[in-house]
Amino acid sequence: MSEQTPQTIFSQIDVSNVVSSPQTSDQETLAEKRHSEMMLVLREILAQQRRQSDLLFQMLNFQTAASRQRTQELQKWRQAHPQLSKGCREILSMLEGVQTEYYTRIVEEAEEKGEDMVYSEFLFNEFVDRFGPRLMHLNGLLQLLTQLSSPEP
Fold it and tell me: Of the candidates 69, 71, 66, which has an alpha carbon nearest to the alpha carbon of residue 58?
């Protein structure tokens, strides 16, 4: 009888530190360069956003200062002309009722001729010419009277 010896199926694997090859070093250098470029771009974006925020803040200050000045001027006018300011408030109340009635007529006219206005440019232009200018002027008057009228006590 012959005895067979078992064959070894194991091999050795070297797990010690491998010295980096030049190719790996180049890849790391390229990655570091990309990283630094990205950081530079991000810093530039941040600087631009800060400048934009500063400009928006300045614009806001300018707008609020102009609005505050206008409000102060209106308040001085109201104090200098209390009877006129009170009259503006009374007229405003009356004209608001006129505006409501006017809107009612516009709606009724639009409901009555709305279908025809879609297909007839003449009817549409007539509608706009009849109601548009008056409505614009009335709204302008109401806005002016609102600003000039004194607030109710």
Answer: 66
Give the pLDDT confidence of 29-45 residue by residue, as tens digits.
888 889 999 999 999 99
Classify residue 13 by its DSSP letter: -
Q: What is the DSSP string of 26-52?
A: HHHHHHHHHHHHHHHHHHHHHHHHHHH
Nearest to 106 by CA among 133, 79, 86: 133
Whole-prediction pTM value?
0.53
3-class secondary-structure state, position 113: helix
Cβ atoms of residues 85 and 145 within 8 Å? no
User: How far, in Å, CA of 132 to CA of 102, rounded?
Assistant: 11
- Residue (of 144, 139, 137) closest to 74 by Cα position: 144
- 52-105, pLDDT tens digit by residue? 999 999 999 998 998 899 888 988 888 888 888 889 889 998 999 999 999 999
Show the tokens assigned to 100. 């409501």
